[in-house]
Amino acid sequence: MTARTSTITYPREGFGAPKDRHGSALGAVGLPAGTEVFSADDHISLAADIFYERFPDSIKDQAPRVVYDDGAWTLAFGGTPFLPKDFTAVLMQYDALEGSSTADIGARLRELESDGVHRELAFPNALLGLMGWPDKDVRERCFRIYNEHIAELQEASGGRFYGAGMINWWDGDGARRTLTEMKELGLKTFWLPLKPGKGDDGKPIDYNSPALYPVWEAIEESGLPVAHHIGESPLASPCADNSVLIGMVHNVAPFREMFGRYVFGGILDRHPGLQVGWFEGGINWIPAALQDAEHLWASLQHMADHPIEHEVAHYWDHHMWASFMVDPLGLELIDRIGVDRVMWSSDYPHNESTFGYSEQSLGSVVAAVGPEDAVKIVSTNVMAFLGLER
User: Fold this and answer.
1) Cα separation of 381 and 364, whole Å?
2) What is the pLDDT of residue 5?
3) Angle in degrees, CA 179, 280, 98, rounded to 5
4) How far apart are CA 350 and CA 125, in angstroms?
5) Where are the domains of the chain?
């Protein structure tokens, strides 16, 4: 298959804040009749104080609070919101949307449908702030409560909303416990951080260390695919000008280290049943990462602690998937990436989402790969990733 030209027209004044946009679907993007567009990466703000409500009375004082502060659903502790200023400023651009949060799943589905999207996989927003919560018991409790809450929304959606869960990634027993609960709740994937933080000994957690082997064993045994997402990489130093823009340019390209850990660190060789998704970083990074990895293996394998069992491309072709919203360059390189391994997403309701012009983005996919392969990219590939019937 040879990719055709794919373009998006950017308005001079930009697309504007999502809270000021509206769905604009007309139903004429060139997809085969009956195609149900399935966004592989959306986001949902938590709009209920579930941690405080569901913590036992004896430890309610340890619960992070969910609060609506100055137009944003955020997290607070001791009466004070604690998310970074820029993060909260971003939330303020879309949390006013009727469908942006967990408050009204019906309104959310209507808003997505108005923009040509029928189904979605949604990742959390402010919950990112709990990934480094110092009390790991509280952190896990919060994740388990979130999983319960998001599963309730998933059930209420009638198969149109799927929520990404959260697990304990820092010890094997906790991983197995949270993964088992997730499967029982019907959740289909989970967000595994690129930066796992520190262990109980105060030292950085090493995903490749034998101490983490039980975690990877639990993940593989669960059969659930791993989801890695952008958004964990603050700037290395303060930035006085356009810090949100510069932060996003930095954040959208975070996957190479973890990619190397899977391929060269032996994770996929030890656990060949794993499936891994890379979300919101686009797809144009993949050919370059594969090219560099192949060259580096040829150049440095004499210094390796152990061999790898396959050619570098094998690990991508058999274990990995990635999502994009607007990526004309990536679509031009689709023959090198594989049409069965990429997933379109709206990223609703984020600033960089296609909300308000999703059909233009979908049309660019059709123009690039043709209608039949476009169905895979905008609908059935994410279903395969999640293990849903097609």
Assistant:
1) 17
2) 54
3) 85
4) 10
5) 34-386
